[in-house]
Each structure stands twice: as structure tokens, then as C-alpha cells.
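Minutes, structural biology subgroup

Action item carried over from last meeting: produce the C-alpha cell record for Protease complex subunit PrcB family protein (Salinisphaera aquimarina). EB confirmed the sequence was re-checked against the source entry. Recorded below for completeness.
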Amino acid sequence: MLRLATIFIVLGLLAACSINPFRGSSGARVVGESQYCGTSSQDSDAHYFADSSVFEDWLDYRSISEFKPSMAVNGGIIIVEMGQRPTGGYSIKLDRSKTKVQGNTLTLSMEWKAPRLDAAVSQALIASCVAIRPPAGNYSRIRVVDQLGNVRGEAAVR
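Output recorded by EB:
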């Protein structure tokens, strides 16, 4: 009877591990998104802010109201920018399953989406960005890659 109970407990634990939604993820998570991040550049970019005062200055300079300076407290904040786009329908999304810390580099895997050529989209300039809480770890570089492996931005962690 004890042997049977032990087997069920072990099987239950194994099943719980296999359905864990955080399995294989880096711990990085999205804490905010904005359709307008105040850039006039079409280039994608990544920024790391270690503290709230520097982040607040950047938010004021860019006139971004969706994010709060307090987002950078306790571990900093990473902003991934898509760059300015001519219409709506563009988006970026964190792929936690492919995001990892390797050596001294945190690689953020992002899915970049563009509207189909025949899609009905708004005719307005957008500059999407995502605020990401970085995972704990010992790394000095952040690298952002898209689903094809293209580097879309890099930042130093200070």
C-alpha cells in the first residue's frame, strides 16, 4: 500500500513539472506596452534603465504616459522599441520560451509582426514598445532578437 501511494505521489509531481507554465522560461516578463514610444527613428532598439530617476527622465523626454518610473524599481526595466511604422497593425511580443541567459548575455526573443499587404489598418504613425522586467541573473549585455534570429537591439546592463 505504501509503495502504491509513493508511486502516485511521484507520478503526480512529474505531471506537475511537465505542465508548469514557467518551465524553460527565463523569468523575464512583460509589465507594460505602448503604441507610441516617441521615437522618430524607424530603427528598432533596446534600452536598459537601472533606476527609476533615469527612466523617469526618458519617459518625460519621450512623452510616454503608459509607463511609470516605478517600473524600474527592484531590478531595472528593459524597453524594446519596434521603431516608427507608417500604419497600425504592427506589434512585438516576448517569446519567453526562447528567452535565455547565456554567459554574460540575456537574449530576449521577440516575435515581430507586420500587417498583411491587403489588411485594413489605421493610417497613423505608430512606434510600439514593450516594457520588460528583466530576470535575475549575472549578465552585462542584453540582446534582442526576432523570430528569424535577426538582432533588433542591444543594451549594456550597468
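Discussion: The longest strand covers residues 105-113.
Next step: EB to file the record with the rest of the batch.
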